[in-house]
Amino acid sequence: MRPKIDLDKCIGCGNCEEVCPSVFHLNEQLGKAEVMDPEGCEFAGCCEAAAENCPQEAISLEED
Ligand code: SF4
Predict the structure, then answer these.
(1) What is the pLDDT of residue 64?
(2) Going from the N-terminus, what domains does the chain have, and what CATH number goes with each?
(3) pTM for the complete prediction?
(4) How far is the CA of 26 from the centre of ligand 1 (A)?
């Protein structure tokens, strides 16, 4: 499963990094989240939680 962030929706709240720091990182200069490790969802096991906790519904999870 690969996470994608819709940057038009992302407001840079940082929830995704808080919930799933091994996969998501908040780029404070851009004010947008980034996917640091697109392969990491399987190991981290927190991508669904990150998507659920995104207030903008900006995170989608695509099946490999
Ligand atoms: S939780 Fe959603 S809105 Fe907040 S930084 Fe992450 S992708 Fe952006």
Answers:
(1) 77
(2) 2-62 (3.30.70.20)
(3) 0.94
(4) 8
